[in-house]
């Protein structure tokens, strides 16, 4: 592969690397490492390996790093070479996967979905330890237009390297007609569990995305169906939510994004102003047998406000809520946990229903209120959630 | 070379002085008596005020080879150490032994005086450039000696270090030598680090930029111990006190560690009426203390006392009634100094009160829990606070050993990766605090419980906290960043790390290359 021009990528921020490449006769690699001799040889090896894998034989490479991990250096070098060569087939090969990852069940817990900027090496350095139910590596709003390619490579390397344990990992791509296709081409090699489609307004886009995923899963050997989470963030999107939710078997969750919605409608951010949109999304998701996840809560300091809003969202039928800071995760999870009185009620209902069944009674009542099938189903859902969360449930079925 | 109780080889002697290897946190039984300063008198009418440092240096007979001491209450804003050393240099006095409680980056100009032989020995903490310089080897005539706050007090008291002249920076003093750090335009908080210096030094010089009429109150340093009072333009810049991370962190990873550390304390049942705790000044400790404060408020629980380094966060807890008293050895911000003046239950304590091994009781022994940091930890729960993984000596001990030895539950908070360097090591580069006094190590990946504390492991598991082994967390971090190359150490010893009882827990050797 030949370099056409000089190019660079990355920064000299903490945990990042600034990599420059120039066309040259042979290969020279210079390393300026914040950690001195502790990692300099290793960084050189990472650079050499990356160059070899791409078949680059003539380049002058300079790495200036501030405690960047290997995969960050690899990502920055890949993107610098991408910029210097204009891309090509070599960049569309499967990435070497170091992370063990299993497929993720369609109906799993998705209480929290944490957005993390996709081009911020400092935040990404510990992203494997944040522990949300869903981690969304973002290529869209948090990444400036000129850095989209850099973020793609970085997100891909993070996905391919890090072990996220029980967390489901997602990538929020750009809209398909504004870089989303290119995003997919690169990041799918990292085998995310799912892809978030922002500003979803029609089932056609979702179907198109599903088609692209099918093709790329084949190319990169992804062993599972990559899920889709359309983000509904416009009035048009809310109106089309039922069709969007049903557009593909890959759609497992509808997310609500309130920021763009309020701007477009011209409404405030009060609960009342957004109630229709929220309810519409929840109903559309429920009709399609999938989950709905509420919009983010943007005041990081206000733990109580977040808890309250999450409780209300849960009450409305949402299965999850967006987060913009790892510290919000615990509060959100707390809000989705059944309260002691809810648990007691659910236990009582289920017991009453079982007893009635044993005795062959048709009508059941608990605490003086009639218990019919939907009520029993709701009680069972509460107990199921408690069990999933490892809470003490007792011997109720 | 004898091997000490943490497996480190300690030379039998250095420069003719025998070294005692560390035998265990409380193995030493002190023998003998305290030393005593010379008897002196001052007659009525005698004037102690001198016009300049030079004059004081002449009067006390400071000369080649002597030991001069300082406190570090101004931290990175200290202006006295350099003024004295420069005066000595001008007067042709060299070969001095510096015995500060701690040096900071502001003392970088000392390097020139070390190179020129004005200062040839240092016993004290060296934070930053002076430590890095000394690490290069061949700079000091004998290895530097690092002691904890309590260890320094003990060394003075038992005569291990004889101070010829103590120079004590005071933001307020009277002409008779009574002095404090609480008042004056450049107030810095307690200057009680210098109390033992005033008691045991042959000569004591109080240096102030705020001379007030007799009596200066309170008299942290008392007239009866003071030979001379010198006024200078400025003894220190209180703006330099608040260096480092003295705010609650916003970093997600640090907050996660803090949250986990606080949850561990709560799970261990330590948040209860009458508790006592140490609040560090690092970003993680502050955040953890803040989480604890919220839990205390929620439960209506009150602590009997807290020990500082005092920040505004701790001072606010006193004001809100969450803490019954603050025992303050050191102020970390201006608000802490303010509260010290206003609040009767915000008390100045000396390092002896706080931490002396050879005493019949330290405040740290009354602690239920304490949050401490470190540069590295190892699989034996040993903690390094002095050197970095590249072998550079960059930090002092502070109260780390004293607090860890005393607190019922000692919690080390540390991210598993710093920069890209993994902090959980097979063996720490330098042992500062032995694993036997460390109970929990909290990282962003979980909590490791010292195998000697199965009770804590049980409590934490029952509360659903992620109890992990250090081995697991080490492997996870190294999977991401790989193992760092280690420095190769030569024979030359650049510093001794004393345990608080005066035994040697480790030595710092000169780096001669890389593996």
What does this structure look like?
The complex is a heterodimer of chains A (397) and B (515). Chain A is α/β, with parallel strands linked by helices and 397 residues long. Chain A has helices spanning 40-54, 70-85, 121-124, 148-161, 180-187, 203-220, 235-245, 258-265, 271-287, 303-316, 327-336, 340-358, 373-388; strands at 7-10, 17-23, 27-33, 59-65, 112-117, 134-138, 168-172, 194-197, 227-232, 253-256, 291-296, 320-323, 364-366, 369-371. Chain A folds into three domains: 7-92, Ribosomal Protein S5, domain 2, CATH 3.30.230; 112-336, Phosphoenolpyruvate-binding domains (TIM Barrel, Alpha-Beta Barrel), CATH 3.20.20; 340-388, no CATH class. Chain A contains 13 helices and 14 strands. In chain A, helix 10 (303-316) links the parallel strand 11 (291-296) and strand 12. The longest helix of chain A is centred in the C-terminal third of the chain and has 19 residues, at 340-358. The termini of chain A are far apart. Chain B has two domains: 46-123 and 161-240, Glutaconate Coenzyme A-transferase; 252-487, 3-Layer(aba) Sandwich (Glutaconate Coenzyme A-transferase). In chain B, 25% of the residues lie in helices and 23% in strands. Chain B is built from 14 helices and 29 strands. Chain B is globular, with a radius of gyration of 22 Å. The model of chain B has no long low-confidence stretch (mean pLDDT 95). Classes of the chains: A alpha/beta (397), B alpha/beta (515).
The geometry of chain B reads as globular
Largest sheet of chain B: 8 strands, mixed
Assembly state of the chains shown: heterodimer
* CATH H-level superfamily title of the largest domain in chain B: Glutaconate Coenzyme A-transferase
Continuous helix count of chain B: 14
Elements of chain A, N to C (H/E): EEEHEHEHEHEHEHEHEHHEHEHHEEH
Rg of chain A computed from alpha carbons, rounded to a whole number of angstroms:
24 Å
Helix/strand-derived class of chain B?
A: alpha/beta
Largest sheet of chain A, described in full?
8 strands, parallel, barrel
Low-confidence stretches of chain A: none
CATH architecture of the largest domain in chain B: 3-Layer(aba) Sandwich
Number of domains of chain B: 2
Residue-averaged pLDDT of chain B: 95
